[in-house]
Amino acid sequence: MNGEAVAAMRDTPVWAAWESASPTLPYDGRLMRDTMSGRPLPAHRRRSVRIPVLVGHGGAGEAYMANGARQLASLGDHYTLHVFPGQDHGIDPRALAPVLTAFFTTGRPD
What we know:
Layout: H1 3-9, H2 15-20, H3 25-32, E1 53-58, H4 63-73, E2 79-84, H5 93-106
Parallel strand pairs: 1-2
């Protein structure tokens, strides 16, 4: 992330919370390095999952997020992909809540 992006983030209401979580960044980076590099997802780490998984992304979000969600959802029949129309990375809770409620109730997002 470039300096201009970080400067813009400092003006957001969540900056203090992000700053307080900053000691976890080295751990987070080590944990996520293989999944945030632009390389294909390491499928072997996800094929062992056997419970229903809802994978979602905002339809108005960045292409790389949609690509990652589609790749993850393609790893097995128990992965369900849901696109939140008109949403970006910060999905509105009013759009998210009914999808989560349906998924946790019926195993399907709609």
